[in-house]
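Annex B.
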Amino acid sequence: MLTTSETAAVRAAIRAAGNLFLPNFRRGPVPQTLDELQTRLADIEGRCLAVLQEALAAAFPSTPWLAADEFALDNTASLPAEYWLCDAMDGAIQYVQQLPGWTINLVLMRQWEPVFAAIYDPLAEELFWAEAGAGAFVNETPLRPSTKREPGVMVAVFEHNHGLDHDADLRQRVSQGLEQLLARYGVVRNYGPHGLQLAYIGAGRLDVFLQVGRDLDNWLPGLLIAREAGADLLTATGQPWHWAADSLLVTAPGLGNAFTQPVA
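Inositol monophosphatase family protein: predicted structure tokens.
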């Protein structure tokens, strides 16, 4: 368990990082070339990470920071016992396109399990956070998933991996999953940031999240928040979710089995 002061330090740091970007939101031009886009995204990543690292250095002086390309739970021998995994701005493309739906995501891993996660939405001033075994919250309010039972009023969201144009099998599986969502639920959307969508499952704002294809580093912060809120974590085939799974189905309690059943 984190101490009260450590929890406070993490929450303050992630708020500071998110609020750093508010004054310039919708102030600059939208990038018009790939070079412009890549430069903007790299600048966002660097500025955000620097703020977080500086803010947390005193409370966690010996905890290293891992980039997504250094993270691999199938090779745990190469990972430290404790580390920060940071998606500096989840939904950065929305930020540079002057759209809402961008967040700052941070998760603390210990013994290869997420122990604390935070997702901050600066535009809404909402901080979703959870500690393993201690529940999930938005600001100070406990999260509770939806209690809906009528598919026609449920809102489902989907994500997909990059590189679908290079993997015909994955493209087919993604298409099949989307068809399943469209056949079962009243509203199907793609909202954007992985973590925020998963936190919204925990908050009862969304009912079903589906992603076919493995995207573990993007899932982790939202996974802990959704799980601690009481959501069900499954694979796309309805099996209990596990670290090696190459798909993720997160639903309000008890809804997962309906996704895998034939439509009447």
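The domain at 4-142 is CATH 3.30.540.10 (Fructose-1,6-Bisphosphatase; Chain A, domain 1). The chain has a mean pLDDT of 89. Further annotation is deferred to the next reporting cycle.
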